[in-house]
C-alpha cells in the first residue's frame, strides 16, 4: 500500500469515527487545512520532476476528492442525527390542555363590577355621573348640608380631620359623597340628575364596617320633583340590580340633616341559611336612606326652594355588593387575597349591560 493510500485510509477512518459536526470539522481541518496532511502532500509537488509531478498531483487530487465526498456524506448523517435528537428533546405533547389566557386568569374586583352595574342602570334612566375630591372642607361636608354646630358627625370620634390651618379651619376626609351633590348644585343649573359614586371615610371597623368604604348617592333637582318619582327610581333600580321581576319596598320615617322628610328604605327578602333572596319571603332588610332635599341645603347651594325642589338617596356600594353576591365579611373586600378574588371576581370581558345582563 502506497503512502497516499495509507493516508486516505487514515482520514476516512477519522471521518467515519467523528461523533458530531464539531469533531468532523476538526478532521477536515487536519486533512484539508493550510497545515493539513493533504495540503502538505500538495506542497511537495514543486520539488518533483515534471513527469512525476503530474502523476503525483493526480493521485493526491483523487485522495482529496474521496475525502471531500466522505466529509460531505458524514456531515449529512450527523446533521440528520442532530435533528432527530433535537426533535426528541423538544417534543410537544399537543394533547395537554392550553395554559389559561390572561383574559381568563385575571379578575375584575366585585366593587369595580358593581360600580359598572350601577352606572349601567342609572345611565339608562338618564343620570350623569358626578365626582369630587376625597379631601373636603368642613363647609362642603357639613355646613352646606345643614349639619348644625356640635352635631356628633363633626366630632373627632367619627370623622378623620387633618391638622388645623393657621386660620383654624380644618380639611377632612369626606364622610359621605354628599359634598359632590353640593358641588354639582353650585356649578350646574337645574334640572339636575346625577349619581355620585366614590370612596368615603369614617372611624369604624368591624364585620360590616371599614374605615374606608364606598357609597353611591343620587340627586334630582327640578321644579316638579316629588317622592313618587323617588320611589319609582329606587324600585326600578332594585329590580334591575338584584335581577328580580318584582320588589316590595317599605319606606320608614327617619332623620337626616340634609333631607326633609327623611326616609329609610327596606326591601322584602327571604333569608335561607347564608343566602338572602329578594322579591320574596316575609322578612325585611334596610338598604338605603333617602328623602326630599332640605330647603336649607338648596339655599346654601344658591337655589331658591320656592322654585326648585328635589330628592336624594344614598347607599353603601360595599353593602349591596355583599348582599347580591353573598359575601359574608366586608373586610375581605379590601384584603387583596388572590384566592378570594378568583372566587368572587369577574372576568374582564363581563361588561354589565341591561340588555345582556348585569352579572351574566
Would you mind describing this structure in some detail?
A hairpin with a 2-residue loop joins strand 7 and strand 8. The model has no long low-confidence stretch (mean pLDDT 85). The strands form 2 sheets. Strands 1, 4, 5, 6, 7, 8, 9 and 10 form an 8-stranded mixed beta sheet that branches. Strands 2-3 form a two-stranded antiparallel ribbon. The chain contains 12 helices and 10 strands. With 360 residues, the protein is an alpha+beta fold. It folds into 2 domains: 87 residues; 237 residues, Bira Bifunctional Protein, Domain 2 (BirA Bifunctional Protein, domain 2, 2-Layer Sandwich), CATH 3.30.930.
Put the structure in a nutshell.
The chain has 360 residues and is α+β, with helices and mostly antiparallel strands. It has twelve helices and ten strands. Strands 1, 4, 5, 6, 7, 8, 9 and 10 form an eight-stranded mixed sheet that branches.
